């Protein structure tokens, strides 16, 4: 199955451009979220280099952000770039669990491979990818059991319709040791 970034843009915009005045935009370098301003009358989720995976990840952050955060550049989130120490890496992983859980669900809905990202290639500490992915897995299981929030549910349904994939079930999300 081919996953083209333009298809992702079309799916996202079809879901959210009207109700949320938000569009997915192919960017060049670093991803960023930009609320509507004098340069554009709509909110922009800018993803890196046309990478499908980057688009999925940035959409997941948008789906987590509440209304007030969606009025702030990059949702007003804290971000410390690659090269984090152990304490800062722990903080980074804490804020990434939910977005990466949604990203995994989006990837399954699109039939696209998911790779958990600890995003600390040049840091002083080697992240425990398996432990982090277990936390992400636990969040996926919680949402599958108790319900997925409305915006991600809408996006998942659109991905499933476009890619003709089945409904999400727990067995589609292997325990991290099995990867």
Question: What do these coordinates show?
Answer:
It comes from Siccibacter colletis. The protein contains five helices and three strands, in the order αβββαααα. The protein is mostly helical. The chain has a three-stranded mixed beta sheet with strand order 1-3-2. The two termini are 21 Å apart.
Features:
5 helices, single chain, mainly alpha, 48% helix, 179 residues, three-stranded mixed β-sheet
Structural class: mainly alpha
Profile the largest sheet: 3 strands, mixed
Unreliable stretches (pLDDT < 50, length at least 5) are none
CA-CA gap between termini: 21 Å
Question: Which assembly state applies to the chains in this document?
Answer: single chain
Mass-distribution shape? globular
Q: What proportion of the residues form beta strands (DSSP E)?
A: 5-15%
Helix content: 40-55%
Report the mean per-residue pLDDT as an integer: 88
Name the strands of the widest sheet in spatial order.
1-3-2
InterPro entries: EpmC
Protein name: Elongation factor P hydroxylase
Pfam family, one: EpmC
Keywords: Elongation factor, Protein biosynthesis
Summarize the structure.
This protein is mainly α.
């Amino acid at each position: 199955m081919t996953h083209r970034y333009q298809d992702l843009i079309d799916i996202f915009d079809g879901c959210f451009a009207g109700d949320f005045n938000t569009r997915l935009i192919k960017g060049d370098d670093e991803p960023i979220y930009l609320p509507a301003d004098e340069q554009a009358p709509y909110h922009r989720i800018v993803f890196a280099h046309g990478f499908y995976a980057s688009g999925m990840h940035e959409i997941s952050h948008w789906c987590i952000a509440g209304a007030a955060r969606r009025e702030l550049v990059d949702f007003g989130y804290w971000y410390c770039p690659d090269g984090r120490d152990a304490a800062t890496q722990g903080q980074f992983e804490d804020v990434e669990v939910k977005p990466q859980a949604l990203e995994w669900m989006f990837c399954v809905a699109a039939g696209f491979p998911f790779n958990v990202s600890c995003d600390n290639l040049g840091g002083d500490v080697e992240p425990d990818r398996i432990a982090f992915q277990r936390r992400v897995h636990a969040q996926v299981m919680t949402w599958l059991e108790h319900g997925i929030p409305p915006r991600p549910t809408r996006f998942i349904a659109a991905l499933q319709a476009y890619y003709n994939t089945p409904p999400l079930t727990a067995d589609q999300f292997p325990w991290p040791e099995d990867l």
